[in-house]
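Weekly structure sync, notes
Attendees: PL (lead), two postdocs, one rotation student
Agenda item 3: pending single-chain targets
PL asked that the sequence for the first pending target be pasted directly into the notes so everyone works from the same version. It is reproduced below exactly as submitted, 397 residues in total.
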Amino acid sequence: MSPPAWAACSPSVTRSKDWGTSEVLTDTDLEAEYDRGYTARNDCLGPSGHKHNDTDSPNLDWDDIWSDAAHDHSDAAEGGASSFDWDSVWTDAVHSHESAGEGGTVEAHASTVVESITVGLISTEASSVNQILTVDGDGGASWSTPAIWVRDGVQIANNGSDANNDIDVDYDALTVSTNGDADGALSLLSDGNFTAALDGSAGCNAIDTSSESGDTWYYVWVISKANGSTPCVVLSTASDFPSVTLPVDYTSGRIAGVIRNNGSSNIIAFDHPKAGHYYRFRDPIKDVSDSTMENDTGKTGTLTVPPNTLAHVRAHATESSGTTVAIAVFPTNASDDTANLDEASFSYLTASSTIEGSGVDLVLVDSSSQMKYMVAEATAAIATVNTLGFWDNYAGE
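Predicted structure, written out during the meeting:
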């Protein structure tokens, strides 16, 4: 395409006369000089803008060149393809406007851009505070709240209406995972409040199987469907997520706590302060009562606490024939051949024929909920260990 014809105009404007010393500049001379400049302006620039066409080429009208409507630069009326080479300005490494004489159209430009975005981060949804745009994997994206492994404001309690069979589960914030721990895909839940029945049918807010067993630990799992939707609680004897029987479409979970029932399948009454990890039995449980003690000889006892937790106990000793007695509790992997008074949970010295006393201690139990106990400085002692409570270890799981 040939460039459009332009009206004749002088590329430069000069004075018509050089004025000498003492010459007089009359009004006629001044008007003539002004008219020359005015005429040149009309010829070369025009009074009303600029269109690149062959009928009104002197005029400069930018509304006809730059506008909100779709247009290209493929003909002289819009700037001329030969005079506008977009390849030299916008590289083809991303996209070009070659579909319309290198000028391109709005539609062609948009389709090229969309094709160049391979993951398609496009969402028509409105976001909330602190959300991020996440790739869905299907060419689109959605807003989501970034998840971290958090456990805040968790509280588990016997239900007020049916304390023997139901528990209440509350949390302010709790992260669940497809692995049941921090290594899986995470979803952050907030403001949960549920009641789960240990004696009901299997499913959400109930036991994960169809029957309850007595004298059993039940782990309190908070579970959800994909992306943290439709959360609920299941009670399971399984402490690992793959072994939990999940309702249909539930894929994520996390242990929020643990409960214990007795031989009559009634949930043992306990207190669990909000945002804490300590469980206190309302009635201490006598787990050891041993009248066959031998001096400085460790024996193994099983406590009513979950495996691998820190037990809170009261150790008691009675000595009927001596004047000194001591009792100690310690982990099963500790040495049991040197029990001294300075190692004891409780020690007592008296001149009477029968002595007894007790002391409070903490002891770490093993994977079978067992620990050791021992008496020292005694010849006919009786050992008793009452379990007061325990600290769970589910903050990081």
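Discussion points:
- The domain at 280-391 is CATH 2.60.120 (Jelly Rolls).
- The chain is about 5% helix and 35% strand.
Action: rotation student to compare against the earlier draft before next sync.
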